[in-house]
Amino acid sequence: NDTRHDQVLAAECMVLRNGNTLWRETMPARVYGPAENLAFTSRYRAPLFDEQTSLTFRVKLTDGSGAVLDTWDAPLTIFPRNQDFTLPTTAAMYDPDGTMTALLTSRGIKGLSFLEDLSDLRALKQLTVLWVNFDKAKLHARLWQQVLPVLRDFVTQGGTIILDSPPEFAWNDLPVKLNNGKGYAADGRLEITYDYNIAPHHPAMHQLSDDDFSLWGSDYYLAHRCFEIPQEGNVRPLLVAGTDRAGLTSSPLMELPCGQGAWIVSTLELVNKLAQEPRCAQLLQQIITAAHAPKNKLAKSVGLCVTPDTLRIMREVEIGRAHV
């Protein structure tokens, strides 16, 4: 009651689809004194839909006579639990114990291959994309060091590897060294509930807005760690995040081109919240589809027009030594 006198107020919540009311809940009328307020929780348990459906959540504030004093609308988008899309068979996930297979099957995601052994060279030669999860798939430091030369060769020859939630033992083994993003978590990590799409034209981020990267799941976290965006090296941040003091200087999703392929590093809760957050499945699909697309091959010869100082430096580091 934002008036200076007593007033009878009631509230009504409803969900509408194409103007038709699907659900309704009311808070009974009562007398409110000047500046008095009351909070209440209204929960709408959405039914299952076979396709993405747009609804409207509406709240009406009325007086004792039923006259409407104020109305507030918010859009609701309901996603089907069964995603029902097919990924390329030349994309694979590391899955030594079947955990990833069961998770993706539960969401209706098909087509993806699964690898039990990362050192299987014959299997890797058939792939264009490899997703390595360090959390659910339990890839440990010793195995990582054993398969690292094979993975590096896979990327150099044109493949893409997505490192999902890589632990600290893997940070220094990438083409660009990664550092922990500074935040306010107990051990200095940057935990985020919001981040921002800085690469909307990248095929992995196409048609995804900043609203899609906010408040995932019941605890709202998108990531429990971010990396500082490197100031040197070949790095493309796809999402940015940060703190009020430092600004948007960290990222939970970056692409590191290398040779004819690329590493994609993600700390997003994509796999952990695949059964909770609708956008996780869409982002997983777009990352893998974009990684599967043909990449530009490195040119065998490049013409450069440089100053004498630059030419001297290039010769010192043996770039184009025989031809510049």
Overview of this structure, please?
- The protein is an alpha/beta fold.
- It is built from five helices and 15 strands.
- Strands 6, 8, 9, 10, 11, 12, 13, 14 and 15 form a nine-stranded mixed sheet that branches. Strands 2-1-3-4 form a four-stranded antiparallel sheet, with no helix packed on it. Strands 5-7 form a two-stranded parallel sheet.
- The protein starts with 6 loop residues before the first strand and ends in an 8-residue tail after the last helix.
Distance linking N and C termini? 78 Å
Main beta-sheet annotation: 9 strands, mixed
Oligomer: single chain
Helix content: 10-25%
Cα Rg: 26 Å
Given as residue ranges, the uncertain stretches (5+ residues, pLDDT < 50) are none
Shape category: elongated
Order of helices and strands: EEEEEEHEEHEHEEEEEEHH
How many strand segments?
15
Which structural class matches the secondary elements?
A: alpha/beta
Q: Taking all residues together, what is the mean pLDDT?
A: 90
Strand residues, percent: 25-35%
Count the helices. How many?
5
